Request: fold
Amino acid sequence: MKKVALVLFTVVFSATLFGQTKVPITGVKGFKFGMQREDVDRALEAVYGLRNMEKKRRETTLFKPEWGGVQIDYIDFDYLFNGKLYEVYFSKGFDLDDEKGGYNYFEYFKEVLDKKYGKQEIVEIDKSFVVYWSDFSNNTGISLNFEKAKSRGGYFRYYVSLKYIDFGLYSIKKKEAEGAF
Reply:
């Protein structure tokens, strides 16, 4: 699900269809792109404690946090090999009988992001809804998605996902994955 969203995000981000944001996108909630993992993890531990965190090789996952006054299922903080933060991914799932609740959640986040970064239109792609905010001067962006997808457990659910990404650092991540580093 994350890979499909990233591909769609990259394609649309590259297009000049969407305008520059009115506020630079340099990270999320005090976590700046390029921040070192130790600093991010220390800040998360101070607020949320260790019991809600899982640290993997290049990812820190925060489970069931309240973020900006809203309950989230999980947040992934993704890092390069050198420990720099390049992506923050939020996800919230809804049961199939709560499509309206999921879409309302999506609309709430769109409204909040529109106020901060400038109004953008919702794009429908294969029965999924996506909104993009692009900061061309910083090579960064945000995607907000509402889609029906299969969970890790194999069940279909509705998901609202929100991704903040630094494309310059992401290109380094792709080179790392290809063994260029």
